[in-house]
Amino acid sequence: MDFNVRKLATDAGIFFSRAVQFTEEKLGQAEKTELDTHFENLLSRADCTKNWTEKIYRQTEVLLQPNPGARIEEFLYEKLDRKVPPRPTNGEILGQFMLEAAKEFGPGTPYGSTLIKVGDCQRRLGGAEREFLQTSSISFLTPLHNFLEGDWRTISRERRLLENRRLDLDACKARLKKAKAAETKAAAEHELRVAQTEFDGQAEVTRLLLEGISSTHVNHLRCLCEFVEAQAMYYSQCHKYMLELQRELGRRCPDSLDVNSHPARSPTDRSAFLPLNSASPLETDALQIEEVQPPASGTRKAKVLYDYDAADSSELSLWADELITVYTVPGMDSDWLIGERGNQKGKVPVTYLELLS
User: Fold this and answer.
1) Nearest Cα to 238, choosing from 99, 120, 122, 117?
2) Where are the domains of the chain?
3) 3-state helix, strand, coil in the chain (%, to 5)
4) Selecting from 1.20.1270.60, 3.40.50.620, 2.60.40.420, 3.40.50.300, what CATH number does the domain 31-251 have?
5) Per-residue confidence at 200, pLDDT binned at 50, 70, 90?
6) Among 44, 60, 49, which Cα is nearest to 151's?
7) Where in the cell is it found (predicted)?
8) pTM score > 0.90 for this model?
9) What CATH number was assigned to the domain covering residues 299-356?
10) Rounded CA separation 152/156 (Å)
């Protein structure tokens, strides 16, 4: 018991003296052994790797499992060293509900038979998602986790030990400077040599670990490629399943699912603003913009909703959130207005604007 008390007191004394020394170094009141530039660069690179690996790991967890409650449950199972119980995906649950509903409505009815087809597709989508989650966890998340919990902890421990060795070395240097008697000076020189040897040895160990970060990057690069492969395969499977479902349902309700007859149009697709049976305003509207004059009354202010690039000199380019003056002229297509911004004038699509009273 006495030995433990003495050891505790000794450790407390060392800790206190190192804390004082560290504070004096920060204030510039004590000498500090500086590491070489290459070593400092290795330290900086290691810290950068740790910080970004941690962020990527956390956000990938959110991507694969958006439910925070489920993530907490998985974390607790991991800490308890127990296997996480299998959990159906949302797609699988939805598919099961649809199949059960089909039994109630009657599998021979149009609605019931369609529920069966869609429910089966949702179950397959959910199964593909579960496989993707498992593959991504093994090939990507686990290596990142192993680095943070394994290699990085080893590096951190050796760095702390190196810092202690450096503090001991600088303390020996300070004692040698203060030594006056020959015997005291000889003892201080011996302590300094021992401290220098220990510091150099620890610096070499730490340097080797830090240089191993390059191998970590190579390993994480391979894992990242495997993650992308798993993601691409998952989306490819989903696309295949949905195309098959569309073909199945297209035979039953072609009017509502014929995606090829009415393709989706983006907000920047100018053809989206034209009647289906009308020609382009550039072909039918022969107005000379520079000759158009605003009416005596009927001009309005409009707020631009989206950026718009003019197709030619007859149109006016727009920038989101700006205010312009607009008006119409006889014979002009109803999907277009004349817009003015200072001395600039041109045709603008109505759907890009919010007309203000």
Assistant:
1) 122
2) 31-251, 299-356
3) 65, 10, 25
4) 1.20.1270.60
5) very high
6) 49
7) Cytoplasm; Golgi apparatus membrane; Mitochondrion outer membrane
8) no
9) 2.30.30.40
10) 6
